[in-house]
Amino acid sequence: MRPKHLGDFKPKPTLYTLPHGIEVIGEYPPRGVNRYWRVRIRPHHFFKGKVVSRGVYTTRNRAVMSSVLGRALLPTEHVHHKNEDRGDDDPGNLEVLTAAEHNRHHKTGARHSDATKKKIGASLKVAFSDGRRTPPLKGFFEGQKHSDEAKRKMSETRKKMIAEGIIEKPTPPSAKGRKASIEARQKQSEYASGRDRNEDGRFVL
Q1: Dihedral sign computed on CA atoms, order 21, 26, 30, 35
Q2: What's the CA gap between 172 and 170, in Å, rounded?
Q3: Over 60: is that where the pLDDT of 16 sits?
């Protein structure tokens, strides 16, 4: 029996119900750093978030995609808007991508501004000094070569990315560029030949 001091409880009415019994009891537009529509749904086995005011918060696109697939989405699965409109959560406009696929879709060809580069550099320096990140070893991979199998896989991946338009097909270097490249490789070879290597074939730092 409900304690009298809590008063009469009236459940929040359902705004709409998605397939598989997903009841939406609240909708909230993008605000601040949150760029997606959010919804509050009645506790459901597809969503394991914290229950707040008898509801679970999640983004609307993930709620819709879960109702389409009939299962809970994995934490590693991202919901992508095909038309780039984050407010359009129509099932036909949504698709599930891995984190790598989603990142590649949005950031291929993108470049950091000078201000962003400075911020990243400053953050890395702090992380190195705090011990949270290990600075890369200079010359660690110098002189190392890919196996034939690795070269074949990289070549196939590059051809696929060119065919899909993810990257542009490289332009062959001019005669002047080829000559400069050959001279640079010769200088690198001469420099490397005079350095000591350890038992693994890597240069001694």
Answers
A1: negative
A2: 6
A3: yes
